[in-house]
Write a structure and sequence with these properties.
The complex is a heterodimer of chains A (about 220) and B (about 250). By secondary structure, chain A is mostly helical. Chain A is about 80% helix and about 0% strand. In chain A, β1 and β2 form a beta hairpin. The structure holds adenosine-5'-triphosphate (ATP) and magnesium ion.
C-alpha cells in the first residue's frame, strides 16, 4: 500500500521498531534521572557549600546549554579527552539522564521547599526522627506537589528523544527523516508526529490519573 | 517538679528575646502565660520543647537534663533529648496536622512509629481520644475537610496519644473564629480537671483566670509578675501588669 508514493505497509513496522528505541530512551531516562534528581534536590538543600555549590554549577551547565550539545559531548568528548568512548547508546542515555536530573532536581527542590516549616516542627515534637519525618511526613506531600510539573517534564522528554538522532541513534525521528528523504515525501514525518502524539497522550492521561489519586487531600 | 527552667536567655540577630526566664512547673499544675505580642511567649515554649535552642540557661524536664550552660555542659546527648521530647506535647496556634493523613492516622502514626505501640492498641487509643474530643464520627476525614476547631481538637488528641507528662499550648484558640474558641477551651478545661499538667500561652484572660493555678505575665523577655490568677488579675500591685490588663480590656 502506498500513500504519496510511500510504501506505508513497510514504513509503519520500521517506525514501530524505531519507537522501541525511543521508548527505551524515555524509560531509561526516567529510571535514572528521577532518583538522581531527587539526590540533586537534597544536595541543593544541604547547608554545606562544598556540596550545594558544585551541584548548582552542574545544574546551571546542564540547564543552560542545549541537550544536543550535551549529546555530542558525551558521544565524542571522552574520545578526544581520554581516548575512549561510551558507545552511542550509553552516551545517549547518560546525556539524557544527567540533563533531566538537573531539571528534576529543580522541581523536587521546589517541592521540598514548599512544605511548611511547621510540618517538620510538629513531627519533631511528636518524636519522629529526622529520617521518619522526611519519609513519612515530607516526601508524600512533596510527591503530590511535583506530579504536575513532572508530567510536564516527561512530555518534553518524549519529544526530546528525537534529539538522539543527532548522534546517529536509530530512533523514531531518525527513521522518519530518512524515509522522508528517500521517498521525497512528508508522509513519514506526519506519521512520526502521530506516534509522538500518541505517546504524549498516554503520558498526559497517566498523569491525570495519578493526580486524581492524590486528590483525596489538600495541603 | 516536672519542669524546671533557670535563667533562660535567647537572642535573635543580637536582640534579646528571652532575658533570664526562670520557671518551675509542678505535676498537675496549669500555668497560663500572658503578655503582649512580641514579649517572647512563643519563643519560651519553643525553647522548652526543643524547637529552639537557648543561648544560656538550664532546663530540666521530668528529672532529665536538657541543657545546662550554667555549669558549662551545654545540651545533652541526642538520646536524652529524644527521651525528653517524648515527655512533652505541644499544641500549635495553627494546629499543624499532617494533611496527607486521615484524622485517625494523624493520631495513630506517631504512637506506632515513635513509641512502638502495636497498631490495634494505637487505634483503640485514638478512638477513645476522638470520643473525648467529640469527633469519633470524623475519624476517616482529612484535616482539609474539618473546621479549625475540629482540627485543633485532633491536634490535641494527637499530642495526648503519646502520653505526655506536660502539654504546652501556644495560643490554641487564636487562629479560630470566635464562635469556635469555646469548644477548645472546654477541652482544655476538662484536661485540667483530670489534672493534666499544662502550660498555656493565651490571650483569653477570662479563661486564664478561670482555669490556671498560676498566671505568668511576660513582657519584653522577662517575667514581670507571676502569681495566683485572683492576685494577678484581681489586685496586681505591678504597674506594667496593670497597664497591660487595662490596655487589654479596652480592646
Ligand atoms: N526565628 C526568629 N528569628 C528572628 N526573630 C524572631 C524569631 N522568632 C521570634 N522572633 C522575635 O522574637 C520576639 C518574640 O517573639 P515571640 O513569637 O516569642 O513573641 P510572642 O510573645 O509569642 O508574641 P505573639 O503574642 O505575637 O505570639 C519578636 O520580636 C519576634 O520578632
Ligand atoms: Mg506567639
Amino acid at each position: 500500500m502506498r500513500i504519496d508514493n510511500v510504501p506505508i505497509d513497510l514504513l509503519i513496522p520500521n517506525m514501530l521498531s524505531a519507537s522501541v528505541k525511543t521508548l527505551q530512551i524515555f524509560f531509561l531516562t526516567i529510571i535514572l534521572s528521577i532518583p538522581l534528581g531527587f539526590l540533586v534536590a537534597l544536595a541543593r538543600r544541604s547547608k554545606y557549600r562544598i556540596i550545594n555549590i558544585p551541584v548548582r554549577i552542574y545544574q546551571l551547565i546542564f540547564r543552560g546549554t542545549p541537550l544536543m550539545l550535551q549529546l555530542f559531548f558525551f558521544m565524542y568528548g571522552p574520545y578526544y579527552i581520554f581516548g575512549f568512548t561510551f558507545g552511542r547508546d550509553l552516551a545517549c542515555i547518560l546525556a539524557f539522564a544527567i540533563n533531566y536530573a538537573a531539571y528534576f532536581g529543580e522541581i523536587f527542590r521546589g517541592g521540598i521547599g514548599s512544605i511548611p516549616k511547621g510540618q517538620y516542627e510538629a513531627a519533631k515534637v511528636l518524636g519522629y526522627t529526622k529520617f521518619q519525618t522526611f519519609m513519612r511526613i515530607v516526601l508524600p506531600q512533596v510527591i503530590k506537589i511535583v506530579i504536575p510539573s513532572t508530567g510536564n517534564e516527561l512530555m518534553t522528554l518524549v519529544k526530546d528523544t528525537s534529539l538522539a538522532q543527532s548522534i546517529a541513534v536509530i530512533e523514531l525521528f531518525r527513521v522518519a527523516t530518512t524515509a522522508g528523504s528517500k521517498y521525497a515525501s512528508t508522509v513519514p514525518i506526519v506519521v512520526a508526529a502521530l506516534f509522538y502524539l500518541i505517546m504524549n497522550t498516554i503520558v498526559e492521561i497517566s498523569f491525570k490519573i495519578i493526580e486524581k489519586k492524590f486528590d483525596y487531600y489538600k495541603n | 517538679m516536672l519542669l524546671k527552667a533557670d535563667n533562660l536567655q535567647k537572642q535573635f540577630d543580637n536582640t534579646s528575646v528571652l532575658k533570664g526566664i526562670s520557671l518551675a512547673v509542678n505535676e498537675g499544675e496549669v500555668i497560663a502565660i500572658i503578655g503582649p505580642s512580641g514579649s517572647g511567649k512563643s519563643t519560651l515554649l519553643r525553647c522548652l520543647t526543643q524547637l529552639e535552642k537557648v543561648d544560656a540557661g538550664r532546663i530540666e524536664v521530668c528529672g532529665k537534663l536538657m541543657v545546662d550552660t550554667i555549669s558549662g555542659l551545654g545540651y545533652s546527648d541526642p538520646k536524652t533529648l529524644h527521651e525528653i521530647i517524648l515527655e512533652v506535647g505541644l499544641v500549635f496556634q495553627n494546629f499543624i496536622l499532617f494533611p496527607h493523613y486521615s484524622v485517625l492516622r494523624n493520631i495513630v502514626d506517631a504512637q506506632v512509629k515513635v513509641l512502638g505501640v502495636d497498631k490495634q492498641t494505637a487505634v483503640d487509643k485514638a478512638m477513645d481520644l476522638l470520643d473525648k474530643m467529640n469527633l469519633r464520627s470524623r475519624s476517616n476525614a482529612y484535616p482539609c475537610e474539618m473546621s479549625g476547631g475540629q482540627q485543633q481538637r485532633v491536634a490535641i488528641a494527637r499530642a495526648l496519644a503519646l502520653n505526655p507528662r506536660i502539654l504546652f499550648f501556644d495560643e490554641p484558640t487564636s487562629a479560630l473564629d470566635p464562635e469556635l474558641t469555646g469548644e477548645i477551651l472546654k477541652v482544655i478545661r476538662s484536661l485540667a480537671e483530670e489534672k493534666m499538667t499544662m502550660v498555656i500561652v493565651t490571650h483569653e484572660m477570662a479563661f486564664a483566670r478561670d482555669v490556671a493555678d498560676r498566671v505568668i505575665f511576660m513582657d519584653e523577655g522577662v517575667i514581670v509578675e507571676a502569681g495566683k490568677p485572683e492576685e494577678l488579675f484581681g489586685n496586681t500591685q505591678n504597674q506594667r501588669t496593670k497597664d497591660f490588663l487595662q490596655r487589654f480590656n479596652q480592646n
